[in-house]
Amino acid sequence: TQLLEQSPQFLSIQEGENLTVYCNSSSVFSSLQWYRQEPGEGPVLLVTVVTGGEVKKLKRLTFQFGDARKDSSLHITAAQPGDTGLYLCAGEETTDSWGKLQFGAGTQVVVTP
Amino acid sequence: DTEVTQTPKHLVMGMTNKKSLKCEQHMGHRAMYWYKQKAKKPPELMFVYSYEKLSINESVPSRFSPECPNSSLLNLHLHALQPEDSALYLCASSLTGGQPQHFGDGTRLSIL
């Protein structure tokens, strides 16, 4: 079973600060997805990365997929209280586990005004 | 608003009850999923349906019985559940297997 290690587990920052969340594995993923989940709601898909070295930007959020497709990072610039939530990375396992996502443990981000 | 709709939002049931959770999507997705999520933990996969056929069962106890009546609907039938089954049950769908998954807001299930 592939293991996705996500760090840190918890981040508390002030509005306007930057933050980075990491997702690492010893295994290769065909794609990796980032989600944000707020209390009482389901995870919302933020981005999917599929190509090694890929960088995607979504407003103040920057996502990077490692060259070897084993790791990924999420960087938030000038965080706002609306960025508060549980951030989950999830990797698509390789061919013999079609459709099966391996989730990281999640990073709880709290942005205070 | 999510495009995957789950009902009910909350469910409280006794250990001897029979109930069903419902999930619906009209995005033309042909893969649908059931997950279980405990507080402060990531979702855990339970079942995967592909083109209305069960393709993955993650060794889920038989007191959980999935059903996919058509390409838009996914049900999870519950019977004789245990208190430890209390959790948020999430449904997700994707265009096909291996494509990004879109989640509903879940059903919060409490077993008395």
Structure description:
- The complex is a heterodimer of chains A (113) and B (112).
- Chain A is mainly β and 113 residues long.
- In chain A, 0% of the residues lie in helices and 52% in strands.
- In chain A, the strands form two sheets. In chain A, strands 2, 4, 5, 9, 10 and 11 form a six-stranded mixed β-sheet that branches.
- The radius of gyration of chain A is 14 Å and the shape is globular.
- The termini of chain A are far apart.
- The mean pLDDT of chain A is 92.
- The mean pLDDT of chain B is 94.
- Chain B has 112 residues and is mainly beta.
- In chain B, the strands form two sheets. In chain B, strands 2, 4, 5, 6, 9, 10 and 11 form a seven-stranded mixed β-sheet that branches. In chain B, strands 1-3-8-7 form a four-stranded antiparallel β-sheet, with no helix packed on it.
- The A-B interface holds A 30-31, 33, 35, 40-45, 48, 86, 88, 90, 92, 98-101, 103-106, 108 and B 2, 4, 6, 31, 33, 40-45, 48, 50, 55-56, 90, 92, 94, 97-98, 100-106, 108.
